[in-house]
């Protein structure tokens, strides 16, 4: 015989492969690189809210600053009413932006709603302050994209 061991049919091992039982613990999917985009959306929501608050205070305290009178706006309201509208939207946006950066689900939903509302209000206010309103509308579009497309990447525990 040779140096190698030859097995006979009687000596064969009867061990077989037994797979592990399926795990009952739910594994949380690992966050992807899009978490940064959601954080960007939250920070932009904070920025947009700050801009809204500034725009609102200007409308409340200095009516003559804007390009047209209240009759030249899409919705014919006093600038004081417009100012309080902008301040209210801005405060909600700032609070929501903080919630988005903390990963709260309610904040992503409210963030999208407030960004849409902010964009619509600024479209109506466009004739009074075109450049500023256009900047806020652009920021709102970025916020909507970040929260709608990638909002599920950030979750609170």
Description:
The chain contains four helices and no strands. It has 157 residues and is an all-alpha fold.
Structural class: mainly alpha
Low-pLDDT ranges:
none
Report the major sheet.
none
List the domain count as a whole number. 1
Individual helix count: 4
Distance between the termini: 67 Å
Sheet-strand content, in percent, reads: under 5%
Number of strands: 0
Mean pLDDT, all residues: 80
Fraction in helix = 55-70%
- Specify the overall morphology: rod-shaped
Radius of gyration: 29 Å
Brief rundown of the structure:
This protein has four helices and no strands. By secondary structure, the protein is mainly alpha-helical.
Produce the secondary structure layout.
Elements: H1 35-61, H2 79-101, H3 105-124, H4 130-150
Write a concise keyword list for the protein shown above:
single chain; 157 residues; mainly alpha; 4 helices; rod-shaped
């Amino acid at each position: 015989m040779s140096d190698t061991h030859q097995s006979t049919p009687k000596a064969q091992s009867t061990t077989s492969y037994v797979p592990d039982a399926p795990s009952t613990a739910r594994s949380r999917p690992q966050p992807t690189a899009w978490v940064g985009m959601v954080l960007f959306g939250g920070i932009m929501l904070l920025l947009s809210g700050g801009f809204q608050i500034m725009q609102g205070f200007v409308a409340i305290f200095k009516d003559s600053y804007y390009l047209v009178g209240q009759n030249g706006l899409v919705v014919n309201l006093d600038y004081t009413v417009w100012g309080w509208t902008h301040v209210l939207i801005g405060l909600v946006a700032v609070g929501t932006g903080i919630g988005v950066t903390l990963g709260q689900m309610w904040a992503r939903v409210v963030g999208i709603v407030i960004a849409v509302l902010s964009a619509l209000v600024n479209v109506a206010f466009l004739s009074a302050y075109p450049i500023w309103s256009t900047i806020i509308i652009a920021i709102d579009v970025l916020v909507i994209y970040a929260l709608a497309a990638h909002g599920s990447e950030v979750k609170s525990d």
